Amino acid sequence: MNKSSLIKELFSNIKTTGAVTFSSRYLVNKMLSFANFKGAKVIVELGGGDGSITRGIIERMDEDATLFVFEISEAFCKNLRRQFPQKNVNIICDSAGNMDEYLHGTGADLILSSLPFSLIPKEARMEIYKKSRSNLKESGYFIQICYSYLLKFQFANYFQCIQTAFTLRNFPPAFIMICN
């Protein structure tokens, strides 16, 4: 899938992608700088999109780690499978709310998300928060890119400690919530 097809998919499904453009390299690097990949064996990405965060994760993760990428757009999933054919990368064309069906009780060390929570219906959003918390190891981190600081108050219902970072070097500027 070429860049113009990815952009067409981005805009034609704005309610599920929740973005006007893909995450900048700077935003991806800043987000991933908060994650400790050393020794992380199970990593989950919520919202694979064009693969910019996926690529950054794969560059940083240990060779024996497994990555589960959840994406609901079939077009994005096909593109992700072409880009990342590695055996330890699982592209899952399903809702993040079903992650426990794929993790089978194995806790995640890291959950990295760019899901547009502000656009996801409340019931589905709460289910994803709940599943993220219950599938995250006690020492694990949930790291979220978002465009509204108000999401911090929703995350506080599921995570005890939340740190925030902000970057102007993305369009639009973005917050990063680091939760555990």
Automatic annotation (TrEMBL):
One Gene Ontology term from the biological process aspect of the record = methylation
- Domain Methyltransferase, which positions? 43-140
Which CDD domains has this protein been placed in? AdoMet_MTases
Q: Which UniProt keywords apply?
A: Methyltransferase, Transferase
Q: Which Pfam families match?
A: Methyltransf_25
Which GO MF terms are attached to this record? methyltransferase activity
Can you say what this protein is called? Phospholipid N-methyltransferase
Query: What organism, scientifically named, is this protein from?
Result: Echinicola vietnamensis (strain DSM 17526 / LMG 23754 / KMM 6221)
Q: What lineage, starting at the top, does this entry show? A: Bacteria, Pseudomonadati, Bacteroidota, Cytophagia, Cytophagales
